[in-house]
């Protein structure tokens, strides 16, 4: 049995195509901009079996011909055995599998090998490239996260990189340049998504009685997000983003979803 927060049956920003998105309960990180604090504690989730989840998927399978199943969270890799079983059975059904993760729980061992064998795509969310800054932002080191990125490159697993840009925290030229320099060391990155910080999750903190860590920090504009991506791309050595309004795609939270490299 796994601890599940919720399931979205028509996801369009969590991997390629239309996707069945499983939100896992439990997360070891405490990102200051997290908009799902209700996913933090494992015990708050609903227990579900892999077969229950796949039965839900099967009911609407015709919708997912262009997509598949995405595991997100929370942090899915905290429930490694359940996640691996879910993806294993999904692959037996011929379903595309996508893992949306921070990579914090990564350890190079037999379990990760088994998971990657049934994972088609990894969406890796790198919070901050600097070690000390990452600890300040999330309460955790980024050592395992960057190690996971290198491991995925070593095994040639396709990766989409996600990076949230926050005014005064990650919206800084030097850290964005270092981010691009790190991406330059990887050969498996298929896509970069630069997501501007928003405050849509602030009400959840109020409802849960939790102080919002970034109270008063302004949202990042689309133009600033495009500028941040261009800084990353310049250091990465990839083509710069076209910034005309008609060429910027919006995700469901108003963030910029950048083109394939």
Structure in a nutshell:
This protein has eight helices and ten strands.
Keywords for this entry:
single chain, 261 residues, alpha/beta, TIM Barrel, eight-stranded mixed sheet, two-stranded antiparallel ribbon, 8 helices, 10 strands, disordered C terminus
Report what the structure shows.
- The protein has helices at residues 50-59, 80-92, 110-117, 131-138, 143-154, 173-183, 202-208, 222-236; strands spanning 2-11, 19-24, 46-48, 68-72, 96-101, 121-125, 159-165, 189-196, 249-250, 256-257.
- The chain has 261 residues and is an alpha/beta fold.
- The protein has a single domain, classed as Alpha-Beta Barrel (TIM Barrel).
- An 8-stranded mixed beta sheet has the order 3-1-2-4-5-6-7-8.
- Strand 5, helix 3 (110-117) and strand 6 (121-125) form a beta-alpha-beta unit.
- Helix 1 (50-59) packs across helix 2 (80-92), helix 2 runs parallel beside helix 3 (110-117) and helix 6 crosses helix 8 (222-236).
- The longest helix is centred in the C-terminal third of the chain and has 15 residues, at 222-236.
- The protein is globular, with a radius of gyration of 18 Å.
- 40% of the residues are buried.
- Mean pLDDT is 90; it is low at 244-261.
